[in-house]
Design brief:
Layout: H1 2-36, H2 55-63, H3 65-79, H4 96-102, E1 106-110, H5 114-126, E2 130-134, H6 137-148, E3 157-161, H7 169-185, E4 196-200, H8 205-213, E5 218-221, H9 226-236, E6 250-252
Length: about 250
């Protein structure tokens, strides 16, 4: 019995050894014929394999967008003018003529907060102007007095913080206007009074009205942007302003 079973097992192994390789070769031959000939008898390209949905294939697909865009741009340049590239809007810069007119203008920054004063000073310097810093309202009044009497270089604009310790910005503006009237009556006013610009975080219409009634000429709400500051300079610093003697870019009022 065991010998008969061993013979059958040996015969099965021989049949499988002959049949399996023949079947594989036949399937490979049929596949090559189907790939080489299309239904109408012409040569057809091999059917592409479906892409694998893996992390690496997703990364490759993402990075393959750049060459496609470059090729599209090249073909568009050969066929016709390329479309305009969309760029992020930038803050408008000063023209050469405006920068030349503002060069050397002196702006008094009356601000008790050091960080706010430096931020405003950066905008002043960006516009090509010079800065004079006063940390109190009384220091701002003294700086304007010296300018009006010709004892110090002319101040062309005053940026006055409304809330300052001691003499606040509104009271300082009133004193500057009174000082201007007194010097005018005594014929001691040697230069024009600079415009007084209120700077405050209160942006309500009633706050602006309070500043104007106190003697301010204009109002700028904090925080203000470069275009807003640029528009302010265009309103108040005209081309016919002249500067006094040069004493350096940065001056700190005592």
């Amino acid at each position: 019995m065991c010998r008969r079973f061993s013979r059958y097992l040996l015969l099965l192994r021989i049949v499988l050894a002959i049949f399996v390789p023949w079947r594989d070769r036949r399937e490979q031959s049929e596949g090559r014929q189907a790939a080489e000939l299309s239904p109408n008898g012409s040569h057809a390209p091999p059917k592409p394999l479906p892409p694998l949905q893996t992390a690496s294939s997703a990364i490759d697909a993402k990075h393959s967008v750049l060459p496609t865009r470059i090729l599209n741009r090249s073909s568009a340049q050969m066929d016709g003018p390329a479309p305009l590239n969309r760029e992020k809007k930038r803050a408008p810069s000063l023209s050469k003529k405006r920068r030349k007119n503002l060069a050397g203008k002196r702006i008094l920054i009356a601000e008790d907060d050091t960080i706010n004063a430096r931020l405003i000073q950066c905008m002043v310097h960006r516009a090509g102007c010079r800065s004079v810093i006063a940390t109190t309202g009384q220091a701002a009044v003294d700086a304007v007095r010296a300018s009006l009497q010709g004892k110090r270089p002319r101040i062309d604009l005053v940026l006055m913080d409304v809330h300052m310790p001691g003499l606040d910005g509104l009271a300082a503006a009133q004193q500057i206007r009174q000082l201007t009237d007194d010097l005018t009556s005594r014929a001691q006013l040697l230069t024009k009074r600079p415009p007084l610009i209120a700077i405050t975080a209160n942006a309500f219409p009633e706050d602006r009205q309070i500043c104007l009634e106190a003697g301010m000429d204009d109002y700028l709400a904090k925080p203000f942007s470069w275009p807003e500051f640029n528009a302010l300079l265009a309103r108040w610093l005209s081309d016919d302003h002249s500067n006094g003697e040069d004493t350096g870019r940065d001056v700190r009022a005592a």
